[in-house]
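Supplementary Methods, section 5.1.

A reviewer requested that the exact input to the structure prediction be made available. We therefore reproduce it here, unchanged from the version used in the analyses.
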Amino acid sequence: MLYRGHCHCGAVRFEVEAPEDVEVEDCNCSICRMTGFLHLIVPAARFRLLAGEAELETYRFNTGVAAHRFCRICGIKSFYVPRSNPDGIDVNLRCLTPEPRSVTIVAFDGRNWEASAPALAHKSRS
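The structure derived from this sequence is encoded token-by-token as follows.
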């Protein structure tokens, strides 16, 4: 299924191909908990930025591997390149339309990232 996504103001727009029934992670790390990000990790080939490259800023912390991209106008992080899957894109389910037919939310222990991350490795594979 092809989903459309955007930030709050609409300056950053994208599309992503994902199943009608999705599984997403609800991470308890500090940044995810504070932003309410629901993680839909896909292979990079299934993501296409349609507009707003010039409006994107990047925030990196801790190891600096994850590239947290957010709209410089409205501040929404609708997708980013995750540390767990640097070959993929992690899309915020809450920024997509239409809504998936069903959503399974899986708790992810991001506070203990090193021990938990290997469980996500398969998500960015085609």
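The CA atoms of residues 25 and 106 lie 5 Å apart. These observations are discussed further in the main text.
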